[in-house]
Input
Amino acid sequence: LQDAVFGAREKNRYKNRMLDMVIGKNHPLRQLKSFTDRMRDITPEGMIDENVMGLVDAVHRHDKDANANFLSPRFMPIMPEKLNTKRRLLSPDMFSLYRDDSDNSILPLPNTLEKVGMKANDRDSVLELVMDITGVNNVVDDALDLVKGLRKQGLDKDLV
Output
């Protein structure tokens, strides 16, 4: 499913954003802000110690990745992250509901259930129970219904 979504996005990707066409290449809005400058913009003054901001700046100074994650753990994700950011500082995937062998994953449920010695049928039943209890099935069903409705209206191409 994720490969199909990425393929559709790549196929329909625009060469330029509308903002880029309107303001040109050298406009200040196109300048990338550092992570700490973006944090300062959204947090009240004094909420985060300047030493922490200095540490984050020191880490980010060696990489131009604008999508680095910092202190952003994901709990029980149902799919791998769509943005493959190289830098994930203190941002693990915890108890993921898919098989994950990456270094950034903490106790992915399918892997954990397999290592405990559960049979495949039992693992599937436990994962299904967890997905029912957490409401994942309802969210996925609602999202699929939304896409189906958009497809009927002919608006599905605008989403991907």
User: Anything to note?
Assistant: The chain has a mean pLDDT of 78. The helical segments are 2-11, 18-23, 35-42, 50-60, 109-116, 120-134, 136-153, 156-159. The longest strand covers residues 69-70.
